[in-house]
Amino acid sequence: xxxxxxxxxxxxxxxxxxxxxxxxxxxxxxxxxxxxxxxxxxxxxxxxxxxxxxxxxxxxxxxxxxxxxxxxxxxxxxxxxxxxxxxxxxxxxxxxxxxxxxxxxxxxxxxxxxxxxxxxxxxxxxxxxxxxxxxxxxxxxxxxxxxxxxxxxxxxxxxxxxxxxxxxxxxxxxxxxxxxxxxxxxxxxxxxxxxxxxxxxxxxxxxxxxxxxxxxxxxxxxxxxxxxxxxxxxxxxxxxxxxxxxxxxxxxxxxxxxxxxxxxxxxxxxxxxxxxxxxxxxxxxxxxxxxx
Length: 292
Description:
The protein is built from 5 helices and 3 strands; from the N terminus they run H-H-H-H-H-E-E-E. Helix 3 runs antiparallel to helix 4. The chain has helices spanning 3-8, 21-44, 59-191, 197-210, 213-224, and strands spanning 231-234, 245-247, 258-261.
């Protein structure tokens, strides 16, 4: 291409550059399209729309308009307040109940601890008592067995003692009889000292006759009472008869002046031979072993 041809092309002179032309064309087409669309829309809607501007409401109108809402809100508020009061009262009641229950639980825990301590103490005492009871029952059984043996021994001893008592009574009676016989013989010898055989025989017969059963009983009473054994004495001249003296027979010349010095008849007799003077050692042997 020659230089002249190049000078005739658009953009080579003082006009718009070639690259800007499509952009300008697109902008113009967009503006025209918007204008046509706006006009069409206005025609379809019947012309321009009327816009109302709201006025400000008065205080009365506002209160009248808000009254239903205020009443509902007030009712709901009253209900809410009542509900709050009820719930507060219920909460306070529950809190008081819980406080009482906590105090009761504390007391129960304290009582429970005390009860447990007392229970353990009583259980220990019960175990100790059971042990002591077992020991006491064993001791009782041993004592019952020992008692049975003792009863058997006592029964045997009772029989032996009955026999011994019989022998003792016999021995005591024999001893008293022997002492009385010895006393009578001694009295004969004291009173009948002189004379021939016949005279002495009659004298002794008289003495024996004067020492009758009543004299014997008085004599044996003195022995059983543990007093001094009676003695035969001759009353001296101008001598006063002793208090417990018993004359043999003042009318008989053989026994005149002779008396038996007895004991106090009011004293009781002794229970055993061990208390009788002159009779100790006369108890018969029972043959029983000594009982501890």
